[in-house]
Amino acid sequence: MSWLSKVRNGIPFLPKRQVADTLWHKCGKCQAMVFTKEWEDNLFVCPRCDHHDRIGPKARFTMLFDDERYRVLPAPEVREDPLKFKDTKRYPDRLKAARAATSERDALITARGVIGGHEAIVGVQDFAFMGGSMGIAVGAAIVAGIKAAIDANLPYVLFTAAGGARMQEGILSLMQMPRTTVALAQLREAGLPYIVVLTDPTTGGVTASYAMLGDVQMAEPGALIGFAGQRVIEQTIREKLPEGFQRAEYLLAHGMIDMVVPRAELTSRLATLLAYLTPEEAAA
Fold first, then answer.
1. 6 pLDDT higher than 90
2. Residue in 146, 119, 118 with CA at minimum distance from that of residue 214
3. 93 by DSSP, 3-state: which?
4. CA 66 – CA 283 distance, rounded (Å)
5. Could you say which of 3.20.20.70, 3.40.50.1820, 3.40.50.300, 3.90.226.10 is the CATH number of the domain covering 54-283?
6. Using alpha carbons only, how large is the chain's radius of gyration in Å?
């Protein structure tokens, strides 16, 4: 009998849902076994090594908005499987599996709520949905979120987490790069702030477009941020890259982002930025 089974069996009144698989969480970085409750109470951050685990939109919205209150904005309807793509699986089958696993329509969810007394439109990419990949639906959701921000005269905050463009949509996924860039230009013309929070991982075409266009660039500790993978870069330039290359702290030290903020301080830091960047709202 393993030590984990002994611990589990030694708790006589353990609720049925808390079996061995749910009672403990294994840190992806230091491999420490942490009580799931302790891990969740610590905002899904390992209390041993401070590793920030990936979280989805619902968890993000709950910890971000005042009184855990927010309204999810409807996702735009888009054409699915425009290329009739098939690899080892049909693209519609992959979408169906991702929706069943995440209970979400696609990889980006937008909500409206209040952060530290300041109302904002917030988009969150979900890496659990096909690697947070950028496709037509993600591009449409970002554009719709920006339009909602302009119509309501509110700032737009975006949490990025993606492996890049969605290959099943080919060139149509890459077209979301200029599409979202144009929408962000309209947001800027309206005089509204755009804040980006880079989370682990943010890579590929997402990094090459809307992820790096914020008025303020924030990141969570240890987040992987880059365009091409480290191995690809090393093979191309035939040199060994520095330790921690493409991590948030390295990018901060080299001036690519503005700040690295622990998850526990993120809400208060965003509230401060929103107060500073929306002085008219503060005066009102």
1. no
2. 146
3. helix
4. 20
5. 3.90.226.10
6. 20
